[in-house]
Amino acid sequence: MINESRVKLMTRLAVYEGGEGKKNMSIGSYFRGDYISVQVIRSVICGTAAFLLVFALYLLYDMEEIIAGFYDMDLMGIGKTLLMRYAVFIGVYSVITYIVYALRHRQARRRLRIYYNNLRRLDSMYKKESAGKKN
Q1: What are the φ/ψ torsions at residue 2 (nearest 5 degrees)?
Q2: CB within 8 Å of 97: residues ≥ 6 apart
Q3: Mind listing the pLDDT tens digit for each residue in 1-12?
Q4: How far is it, in rounded angstroms, from Cα 13 to Cα 23?
């Protein structure tokens, strides 16, 4: 005879495994610090590329003024300002990335804990059924 509660639980587990479970399992396979540090490093690389792209677009936009006043520019001052803006941008971006991925890791671990508890419940249902058949 089909156990209706077991079928419902198996369906719920299968839906989870096919959907967000894949992502949560890949996140859950990392230690918290490792997962967050990998994501922060990736975001620093992407943030640097974005900063350079925005800077290049700025240079192209103001090319006429830059060329006209090139000899009157304080290149050291511009370099320091640019480096300071880059440091602030990357610092803020890294902090935001840290917070976001720490929350994602915690949520994935919580969902995986529920998933594993449901697997244990399913296993106990099977054991109870097999013990009932032996008697």
Answers
A1: -85, 130
A2: 39, 40, 43
A3: 678 888 999 999
A4: 14
